[in-house]
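During data preparation, a discrete fold description was generated, as reproduced here:
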Amino acid sequence: MVAQAKSGKTRNFFKGIKAELKKISWPTKKELLNHTAVVLIACAIMSAIFFIFDKGFEEMIKFIIK
């Protein structure tokens, strides 16, 4: 009896997940590519900024140590 109750709850749980996934507004391929490009460009810009700061601090420390 307990196993049937758990089985029913599990089945309802996954039915609920399936119903919620149908409500999602999935992006189109074009939107997905645009958003991916924005993220990659933002990552590249931030990487460049961190690189510049890192090199600047490295040079300052080398200057102070000498």
The chain is about 90% helix and 0% strand.
